Amino acid sequence: MQWTDQIRSVKIILVVAAIVIAVASLVVSHYLVSDLAIEERSKMSVWAEAMRTLNLADENTDLNLVLKVIDENNTIPVVVTDKQGNVQTFRNVDLKGKTYEDSLQMAASIAEKMFASGRYIRIFMEDKKDYIDVCYDESVMIKRLNVYPIVQLGVVMIFVVVAIFALLTSKRAEQNKVWVGLSKETAHQLGTPISSLMAWTEILKETYPDDDLIPEMDKDVKRLQLIAERFSKIGSLPEPVPSSLIEVMNHVIDYMDRRTSHKVKMEKVFPPQDIIVKINASLFEWVIENLCKNAVDAMEGSGRITLFMQDEGDKVAIEVSDTGKGIKKKDVGNVFKPGFTTKKRGWGLGLSLAKRIVEEYHKGHIYVKSSEVGKGTTFRIELPK
Hints:
Elements: H1 2-56, H2 64-71, E1 78-82, E2 87-91, H3 100-116, E3 120-124, E4 131-136, H4 140-207, H5 213-233, E5 241-244, H6 245-259, E6 264-269, E7 276-279, H7 281-299, E8 303-311, E9 315-322, H8 329-332, H9 350-361, E10 365-372, E11 376-384
Parallel strand pairs: 6-8
Antiparallel strand pairs: 1-2, 1-4, 3-4, 5-7, 8-9, 9-11, 10-11
């Protein structure tokens, strides 16, 4: 729980940091763009005045300074139009017309857009009736600054996503180590008493050969041995072998029938032909047993469990349905999480282990197909063939 809380805190800190960086970048960029826009308009006012001087020049006018001001504009796109909207000249505008007339038409179209956006300076001539419009657009620098915060925000978001993914992966790896260590230690601790019990049952068989209870004890000891074997396989990659699914399912049904109330009815809906799939029979039986035991608990010792199996071509579908109390919608997404349980007693590990066995060891998929409170639940397993 402590590790989970730490991960949650780090995720919150990363998200908050990303938001702060994004907002700060937007604010700073906004002020930079505003300042540059004011400066560029000031430059364009000087440039427009130079154009006015050039238009009014006579043979006595010194044009050196005027031409220098005009030539030094190498970044701001400009289109100069007369009173009728005809293009007089343009600068720093990318035109791709095939002829000069096409270029002028394109420049006129660009000037209209600049004028419509309010980026123009009107310069009146001496008679105050004639004028020219110096239409201009944002420079490349301003356009880049407008895009920069978006790019930076994208980079920050990618960083946050990668960081959170790394944290979750680290958390999952840590959980896997705990699972493996706990499982192997459990198998190790069970080994000694099981060996002792097996020896005692052999002695009892020789001492009381006609006792009917001793074979049942022997079955339970072997059951304990199977459980220990299952725990020992958690964390390793057990080699799947071709196995009969019907045989595996029947084995689980026989086991559950002997250990549940007669009020719990086990029904099976299997295809007439056998289905052979590569699985680890011991571990897969554990999955079905977990689902059946959860179903018995959900039905509180009375109801019907239906085991359905169907060959669907490239995969095999197995469903375990019960007539129990069902799962609330808000809990459906949490049933496979370690530690989650709705029982008063329980560790909340059964379904988590089942998911690990199906998805990691058998490359299949397990999920809640349907559940309705008061009517029952259906779990579905899909195994590749």
